[in-house]
Design a protein that fits this description.
mainly beta, eight-stranded antiparallel beta barrel, 13% helix, globular
């Protein structure tokens, strides 16, 4: 009976890890209009992809306190296949704007872009934090 329990548990765990999206993990943004950048933890949030700001840095790369730590930066993003994601929003704290956004995952790089009405912004390429 113990072997069956461990076998079922092993199958469950391997299925759970296999289902993890490759976009999940910690990402470093590019510097914003103020020269600051952050670390975004991208994860599953009730079946969609979200990202929370977990750490902020100044232009010199020094860790700084920020009122935005813990806030959602990405939400409602969905995998579209072939490393492409869309249908979600990204909030840019430097401009306090929320963009309808697209993400493209290429290895350890995440290309970010978004639009508010007809005004679009290239969010640059975020790098995976290892």
């Amino acid at each position: 009976m113990k072997r069956l329990t461990f076998a079922v548990l092993g199958l469950f765990l391997s299925t759970s890890f296999a289902a993890a999206d490759p976009i999940y993990g910690l990402w470093q943004t590019i510097p914003d209009d103020n020269g600051n950048f952050g670390h975004i933890n991208v994860q599953d949030c009730d079946g969609t992809i979200c990202g929370i700001l977990v750490k902020s840095f100044d232009a010199a790369g020094k860790s700084v306190e920020s009122e935005n730590i813990g806030k959602s930066i990405i939400w409602n993003m969905k995998a579209k296949g072939s490393g492409k994601y869309g249908g979600g929003k990204i909030w840019a704290p430097d401009r306090d704007k929320t963009y309808a956004s697209k993400l493209v995952l290429e290895g350890d790089m995440l290309k970010v872009s978004g639009c508010v009405f007809v005004i679009c912004r290239d969010g640059g390429t975020w790098m995976r934090v290892k």
